[in-house]
Design goal:
By secondary structure, the chain is of the alpha/beta class. It has one domain: Rossmann fold. It is 42% helix and 12% strand. The longest helix is centred in the last third of the chain and has 29 residues, at 129-157. The radius of gyration is 14 Å and the shape is globular. Its EC number is 3.1.3.48. This is protein-tyrosine-phosphatase. Residues 1-149 form the Phosphotyrosine protein phosphatase I domain. The active site is at residues 7, 13, 123.
């Protein structure tokens, strides 16, 4: 199974989600069975590291984002991933606008997994440091819900 987290520039929200979810998979011994990546809708930050504020906030919770580099959503992602998770409604709309006609891969708002079916992960880029902690709180909650679904899928495949 492969999961792709998608935000606007791939330097704040989606790399945070990738880091948090990777840690959960490691803790459950599932990292070898689930692929995880993140990307952005736009090209502005391609090749750059996650925002320093995102890295610092994640590091305070024991999550290392230092190796992650931004990339842009590619048409091949619709073939390579089993689930695309958007951080907000605009990201979800952009995913759908780029979807190849034959693609059946599900795309959803990430916070559906935290019990917030119509809620977005707020973009902390233009705000203060507290915004990055809020993003982590939301991402951690949604990641736990996603982990439950992933474990159920993996059990049914066994």
């Amino acid at each position: 199974m492969r999961v792709l987290f998608v935000c606007l520039g791939n330097i704040c929200r989606s790399p945070t989600a990738e880091g948090v979810f990777r840690r959960l998979l490691d803790e459950r011994g599932l990292a070898h069975r689930v692929g995880v990546d993140s990307c952005g809708i736009g090209p502005w930050h391609v090749g750059k590291a996650a925002d320093p504020r995102a890295r610092e906030a994640a590091a305070r919770r024991g999550i290392d984002l230092s190796a992650l580099r931004a990339r842009q959503l590619d048409v091949d992602d619709f073939d390579c991933f089993d689930l695309l998770l958007a951080m907000d409604h605009d990201n979800l709309a952009a995913i759908e606008a780029r979807r190849p006609p034959q693609s059946q891969v599900p795309a959803r708002l990430f916070l559906e997994y935290a019990g917030y079916p119509d809620r977005a992960v707020p973009d902390p880029y233009y705000g203060g440091d507290r915004g990055f902690d809020k993003v982590l709180d939301l991402v951690e909650a949604a990641s736990l819900g996603l982990l439950e679904e992933v474990e159920t899928r993996l059990e049914s495949e066994s």
